[in-house]
Amino acid sequence: GAVVSQHPSWVICKSGTSVKIECRSLDFQATTMFWYRQFPKQSLMLMATSNEGSKATYEQGVEKDKFLINHASLTLSTLTVTSAHPEDSSFYICSARDQSAGGQETQYFGPGTRLLVL
Amino acid sequence: AQSVAQPEDQVNVAEGNPLTVKCTYSVSGNPYLFWYVQYPNRGLQFLLKYITGDNLVKGSYGFEAEFNKSQTSFHLKKPSALVSDSALYFCAVSDNAGNMLTFGGGTRLMVKP
Predict the structure, then answer these.
(1) What are the C-alpha distances in Å from A5 to residues A27, A106, A109, B66, B69?
(2) pLDDT tens digits along A59-74
(3) Which of the residues A57, A80, B17, B89 could staple to A49 if both were Cys, CB 3.0 to 4.6 A apart?
(4) Do A49 and B106 lie within an 8 Å CB cutoff?
(5) Which residues of B touch A (CB under 8 A)?
């Protein structure tokens, strides 16, 4: 099946620093990737839709200047948490939609990145 | 607006017994329905989907789900549970192949030996 990777899997940083998370589709191309945030014991909340070669679409309440998304190629999207604060600590998960015929409707998820801001 | 409800926070079942994890949805138009499983500190793994066709969909690890249009439900089932099935299960819906997924709150499945 389609594989999505994320890097890093864990990151601990000081308050005020910026953290970049990478999401890669390993064996398929994805013009669209999605970034989710998951709090402990809660469901996934969509943060933004990342479109290759264009600006990301952010969900209501998500600060686009704080969560910078870049989708520079068909296999890579990055999420940068700028000036991170403790309340940004969370589990960030990306997904990618397989563009191949018959697979467009399925999102495949990365393993997630746990961010802890001290 | 689309929505998904998973009425049970947790389902407990003995190993070897059948299991059901419930999901109901609301969406305009034809639904695209999905089940994902999440193990601790991991991302979501795709289990199965319903787009069109047979109402009974078979997926990974012996799981299946039945689409019921009149009841707007898409319950996940397995004939014989394994301890290794213990995880967090999410139901999700979309109203279009390319649109965003809306997730249910998740149901924790506990399979006891």
Answers:
(1) 10, 16, 8, 30, 35
(2) 999 999 999 999 989 8
(3) A57
(4) no
(5) 32, 34, 36, 41-46, 49, 51, 90, 94, 97-98, 100-101, 103-106
